[in-house]
Amino acid sequence: MPNTNPYLLAVPIGMVLRPINMSRLYLVIACIMLSQVFFAQRENRDISGVIYGISEKNEPLPLFGANAYWLGTTVGDISDENGAFSIPRRNGDSLLVVSYIGYKSDTIFIGSQTFLEIGLRSVLTLNEVEVAQRTKSTVLKTLTPVKYEVISEKELLKAACCNLSESFETSPSVDVSFTDAITGTRQIQMLGLAGPYSQITRENMPDVRGLSSIYGLTFIPGTWVESIQLNKGTGSVTNGFESIAGQINVELRKPESADRMYFNVYGNEGGRAEMNLNLAQKLNEKWSTALLLHAQNNSFQMDRNQDGFIDHPLSRQYIGLNRWKYIDPNGLRMQFGLKGTHIDNIGGQMDYDPDIATGMQDNANEIWGMTMNLRRYEAWAKLGKVYEDTPWKSLGAQVSGSFHKHDSQYGATQYDAQQQSYYANFIYQSIIGNTNHNFKTGASLQYDDFIEDLNSDTYVREEFVPGVFFEYTYSFLEKFDVVSGVRVDYHNMYGAFLTPRIHVRYAPVENTIFRASMGRGQRTASIFSENSGVFASARQIIVRSEDPDLPYGLSPEVAWNYGFNFTQKFMLDYREGSISADFYRTDFQNQIVVDMENPRSVVFYNLNGLSYSNSIQTQLDYELIKRLDIRIAYRWYDV
Length: 639
Description:
With 639 residues, the protein is mostly beta strands. It is 5% helix and 54% strand. The protein contains 3 helices and 37 strands. It has helices at 13-17, 22-44, 153-158; strands at residues 47-54, 60-62, 67-70, 76-78, 84-87, 95-99, 106-109, 115-121, 138-140, 149-151, 175-178, 186-190, 193-194, 198-202, 205-208, 225-232, 246-252, 261-267, 272-282, 287-298, 314-327, 332-348, 369-386, 394-410, 413-432, 434-454, 457-476, 480-491, 495-506, 512-523, 540-543, 557-572, 575-590, 592-595, 601-606, 612-625, 628-638. The strands form 6 sheets. The protein has a 17-stranded antiparallel sheet, with no helix packed on it. A 6-stranded mixed sheet has the order 9-10-16-17-14-15. Strands 1, 2, 5 and 8 form a 4-stranded mixed sheet that branches. The chain is elongated and about 120 Å long.
């Protein structure tokens, strides 16, 4: 039989017949045995390698869980997270099968290789899938202890508005009404209380207050507004002590995300013309800026009811804002801006000419008229530091200043006033032990200087209010939250006072939320600017001063607010909906009463007796059919 093993040693027959050298025989046998062991090791050594998936861009991606096995056997291995595998090789194993779900399997002939790099190509080409959710135009926050109602740009589109005072037409939580027919200024109400009892902020900084309590809502054009955050009752102590009925925070368009240019022009048959121009520019990765401009002109006199008075005041408005924003990758945030407002209004009888001095208007033959000129200039800055490694910790500072001048004439009544205000707020936020225990602490300063001239009387007040605050938040999973805060402020006229507030949230099951809140609020009433409508009458204005060292000789307005609300979210026919109900009560410890019982006078004095407001509201929101939302609400006031 022929020799088929190349490693066997052929011995000549003649050699067998010779005498055998035993040492040589042992050497030959040892060589034969070593050659057989070497051959066996060569046939049985392991095969290892890496399995890749080849992407559409021809980039190798390690495949985790790919199968590699010898053809016709069950001997194989599964690749690890790096795509690596290792398989023992036996005699006769030469074809390796590699497979992975979604990729084309491959059969590879293995020669003398011991390490392989194997690439598999995908057999499935998936089209891009975009997962989208339709955001509600008004969102009720369910995870926050304070019940926030976020009015988005989509909600504002339902009732296009020209300024902030017209932005609540579709919100059941806020009433919008005219203060009087002469000035045509809109005023809002919450919980049955007038607008000044609601704290109105712009990006969490004081905005509409003091002399601007009534007219300030018109200082923010509608095209500037990105969203509005609204909550009833007392808010957070970090935002001050003045909130009684609720808080409205307005977010303006951000320079880093707004449209580079937005321009619109509006006109109607009543002679009202408006122009809005928004410009935004991202200068680089860190800096961005925006310029917001608004102009309005209404110069046509109209008297459709033929009563001899202009139906709406003649008006000119010019409002501009420039803001800058800086974002650094290391966590530093900064922004600052300037804003200017010029408003001139004329109202009254059709033949009224403000350039002609009419003297005392108690003469029945005189022509009655009203003029109002507003000039307001503001500057603000924010500086903050967030920490990437500890996202629960941050440090921030807010500063602002404003100058407001108001000159007006209502028939024979002249009212001129000016206000200078400065504000600073420093906030530090961190945790106690873990993120279930959060806290905010800091200090604030509010300074106001008022000078008001009403005919021959002058009212001067200078308010200086430093304060400190601490707010603690406890969270247990997503079921229970408590926010408890307290402020200690010192007013240079009223002395020291305490402002405690608490908010509780409990969600026994998913999408069912109960909330409760309680807190104190205090404010100084600007009695003339907040009731300027009385100037249009011939009433005698009387202030019953009790302490000459206090503003107007009157005490501060102090109230406690209590609230309970329930929210239930549901899914019906694959569409989301929510039901909410709330009750709020406001009890005044002191309030400035505007007594108009006598038709010949209006009297301002401190409360003597009870003053309260009860508010009950229920609301249903549901997407009735695709892209058609329905909102039904019922509200009851007892004031």
